[in-house]
Amino acid sequence: MKKVANSSKKGILIKGNNADSCYNVELTYVSSEKRRPMKARLFFISALIVFIIIGVSLPQVYAQENITVAGGDVPPDQQQMEPAEGSLLPLPVTQKVEYTLPYPGILPDHPLYFLKRLRDTILEKLISDPVRKAEFYILQGDKRLQMGLTLIEEGKATLGESTISKGEKYIEQAVTQLSSHKGSGGVVAPYVVEKLEKSIAKHQEVITDLIEKVTDTEKAGLQGSMELIKQMSTLIQSLK
Question: What global pTM score does this model have?
Answer without folding.
Answer: 0.62
